[in-house]
Specification:
The complex is a heterodimer. Chain A is of the alpha+beta class. Chain A has nine helices and 22 strands. Chain B has two domains: 217 residues, PmbA/TldD superfamily (PmbA/TldD fold, 2-Layer Sandwich), CATH 3.30.2290; 231 residues, no CATH class. The chains are: A alpha+beta, B alpha+beta.
Chain lengths: 431, 459
Amino acid sequence: MQLNRSLADSCVEALKAAGADKAQCVLRVMDKSEFTVNAGKIDLLRTTENGSLSLTAILDDKKGSLNLNELDSKSVARAVEEVVNLAKISQADAANDIAEGGEAQSFDSGPTEPDLGAMYDRLENLIERGKQHYPLAIFDQMVYDFSTSETLFRNSNGVDLTERKGQYSFDCMFSSREGAKSSSFNYTGFLSHDADTELWLCGSLDRLLRENGQQVHTEGLKGKFTGDVIFTPDCLGDFLGTVTSFLTDGPMITGNSIYKDSIGQQIAAPSLTLHSRPVSEELASGYRVTGDGTVAENSTIIDKGQLTTHLLGLFGAKKTGGQRAVNDGGCFVVEPGDTPLEQMIAGVERGVLLGRFSGGNPTDSGDFSGVAKNSFLIENGKITQPLTETMLSGNLAQMLGTIRSVSTERTHFGNAIIPWLHAQGLTISGS
Amino acid sequence: MKIADLRAHAHLFNDYTELRVQQNRNVGLTMINGDLVRNPRSTQGGVSARVARAGGWGFCSTPEIDGAALERVVGKASTNAKVLAGRSKLGDLQLPATKGNGSFDWKSDAKERSQKELIEFLEAIDAHIKETYPKLSSRLMALSNLDMQKTLLTSQGAESFSLTPRSLIYIQMTLEADGEPIDLLESYGGLGHFEDRFDDPSVLFPTIAKQYEHLEAKAGGVYASAGPKTCILDAELAGILAHEAIGHTTEADFVMGGSIAGQFMDKQIADPMVTLVDFAHTALGETCPVPVYIDDEGTTSEDCTIIDEGVLRHFMHNKESAGHFETAPTGNARAYQFSDEPLIRMRNTAILPGKSKLEEMIASVDDGYYLMKPGNGQADTTSEFMFAVTLGYEIKNGKLGRGLRDTTISGVAFDMLKTVSMLSDEMAWTGAGMCGKKQPIPVGMGGPALKCSVNLGGK
């Protein structure tokens, strides 16, 4: 779809004319081309186009917002009127605001058109390779898409930012079977700016497919013990997402965040340094403009174990009196440690190599429990057996303090770069 | 768009084709400690076409809804199908002919409440909670209304219109206990427009009082002991078990992808007292939380009895899987947005009630837990499941004891269902479920209380 640049400007003017003290318009157009593999067959080619117009009006500190994908003039005029009315009937809150204006800027990344032939080849080659190298694997579902988006941010403070992005995204869910025995399913994914690299060479796919074949024949644990856990990069990425969710507007505004007063404090062992790098050339999935319409910058969230920033948006910062973050989080890059993975495993007396964690959302206090999936038992420094029906529990905040080492090796997912991490003192129980 | 407007484009259909116009309308409000922090509305609509050719599918969608756009999406979907057919050697799809026809409109007859009135509704509830329960450290309320409107025409002659609204209010209350925040979330509402679901805020006050009572018990409660235990799973947990641990493994596309359920057809997988059904729209004489009369492939939706007296009998199908398994489609093909292709999705999945009284069931447990409310849940192709439990009580010598802090249960469903020894004679539905499988989709889940053995996570 084509971006109608004048529409965004006219919306801001129309919102002001309708009574808004402050007005914001975010106009986006998106195109996607997607191959889907079901039960090992490439059986769907899907193309979608969509538009999105998000309008915000603030008057007398009262805010209304509205999103629609009908971009014709009648629908937009109706939306302008409606969003101002939404603001009028809302509650006044001095924290409602829009971003300060600055120099007009335009950002561009990634290709503009998909290479459908290459995408098909990559999928076909992966399926073919599976027959030789992952003979037990069943590709339950794979989605390989190319998407482009162009976004205009405009507001009545003079914000004028444009961002165009193009990227390939691959997601794969798979399991393995031998006779009547099945492994647990596992999944992974990654992003890139081209479709030139064979898929099994990206992210953790090759390793996970090989491991999944070994996980057909699992054994359960008996009893309960306190042990070590080595988080694999896929699993650690999920945990870091959970940890950083405690830093965002919702838990900070309710006051329930375990990290609400922790800026400058040691919240993890010194071996952990976590960056958020949305403008890094290393990652294909970055962003240059935040959801509030400010220019994004890289940040370090945890520096040698010390919390350096919350992830507050404009509203959350004003509401809590905190500092607005320079980005929206995500795009995690964890600094590598100094322990090779092999040495890390050798240092575990009894514990779990955690491939995937199927668990409940942690409580406000950080307690979590769930099932270790696609995981292996480690005994006396060696991987001894794939596990089934094994539960893990602990507390996120306490766990970060027990980190013993971070691996030298890291996995590059295109939207994150993550190592293995060795933590201690988790409760591990069998059936 | 009316069905007649779609019919005018039927001449564009050369291969098997579905043409769907859809609009989803959302209203969302979020209030934290009495402050309205989100007040958005959104509308997502457009048209999509899906075409089958030589074993593959082509799909295209656009937000524009006019004659030219309809022609364009059918043409592009056909081209996409041809591109796949040119490269893949998939063999012909056997798509059973179905011709569902009807209009199913759940629009309220009552005057629609304005956004201002919706905000005032939440403010009234919040004011009541603040005044009645001053010990709370925080209050969060969210209102979420979704209208899903679809018009469908297929090359096999199916024609349907549906408007299915869902209106929900979520209330989360938090207490400080031992310096830690302890919370409990409850959802209210379900099928229907807000005006049909919620009359006056005070109607909710008695259930909010119960929610607070449970929260106090939880705040003063204990952690579950890790390991296997005899438990009574209340209706909401039975419902999520039916959906996550059994339902997903018996979706025919998962079976084709290697689900363990593929090995168990016509085998005893549960105690004979267990019967599990994915209801299309009506269960035990009442409309289900997410009624589906005609699915998004134009198939008239039928109930699917997955487990009948402990024996696995049926999988849930779309046309493609029905063709593969040489059976009839069950009407489970559903898409979330106009831009989504229909997938095999559950509708209203429930274990049927038994004959026991809940009190008798609790009294029969010497040392175990009564688990009442699930958080999130996941299951595996092996039927191994995990559910968070956000509300429960100890059972000691047949009596309810202390409240429980958050915990997790897990097990292998096809093993665990063989341990079921009692089912209560009443069942309950939850209409707040949102299932994720490439796309989200609203689902209903239900069941009685059931007595069984499961593994608990704890400290």
